[in-house]
């Protein structure tokens, strides 16, 4: 049983790695169809369960953007996201000034900020270039 679960998790990580170059952030449905290409008897329930366990163990990161869809990210370092409203690509972004901003809030209002994840929307460089 333990062995089977390990294999299922490996298949999920493999699917995420395979699609990383195309799309860094996959929904459960996308993970499920990628895993099924390799292992077609796997159930959606099994994929769900294993994905959640992988996220709970910190192997992958769960992100929820403004569309409310759960997506999973192989990049588990603290980072934020930018979604292009034209091509719907989700990009990883770093905000180096966040600690400074947090300090400003603390100084100005006495607020203690706990930021786990921020997301932004807009038009990406690729789509901006297309328009011109
Ligand atoms: Zn775009
Ligand atoms: Zn990301």
Lay out the secondary structure:
Blueprint: H1 2-19, E1 25-27, H2 28-38, H3 44-56, E2 61-64, E3 70-73, E4 80-84, E5 90-93, H4 98-109, E6 119-122, H5 125-131
Parallel strand pairs: 4-6
Antiparallel strand pairs: 1-3, 2-3, 4-5
Helix pairs in contact: 1-2, 1-3, 2-3
The structure holds zinc ion (2 copies).
One zinc ion is lined by residues 84, 86-87, 89, 124, 126-127.
How would you describe this structure to a colleague?
The protein has about 130 residues and is an alpha+beta fold. The chain has two domains: about 1-75, Winged helix-like DNA-binding domain superfamily/Winged helix DNA-binding domain (Arc Repressor Mutant, subunit A, Orthogonal Bundle), CATH 1.10.10.10; about 80-130, Dna Ligase, domain 1. The protein has helices at about 1-20, 30-40, 45-55, 100-110, 125-130; strands at about 25, 60-65, 70-75, 80-85, 90-95, 120. Helix 1 packs across helix 2 and helix 2 crosses helix 3 (about 45-55). One zinc ion (ZN) binds near residues 24, 79 and 92. One zinc ion binds near residues 84, 86, 87, 89 and 124.
Query: What's the alpha carbon Rg, rounded to whole Å?
Result: 18 Å
- The CATH class label of the largest domain is Mainly Alpha
Q: CATH fold name of the largest domain, please?
A: Arc Repressor Mutant, subunit A
Mean pLDDT: 87
Strand sequence of the main sheet, in spatial order? 1-3-2
β-strand amount:
15-25%
The biggest sheet amounts to: 3 strands, antiparallel
Beta strand count: 6
SSE string, helices as H and strands as E: HEHHEEEEHEH
Helix/strand-derived class? alpha+beta
What's the architecture of the largest domain in CATH terms?
Orthogonal Bundle
Q: End-to-end distance, in Å?
A: 56 Å
Number of helices: 5
Q: Output the CATH homologous superfamily of the largest domain.
A: Winged helix-like DNA-binding domain superfamily/Winged helix DNA-binding domain
Bound molecules: zinc ion
Based on CA inertia axes, which overall geometry fits? Answer: flat
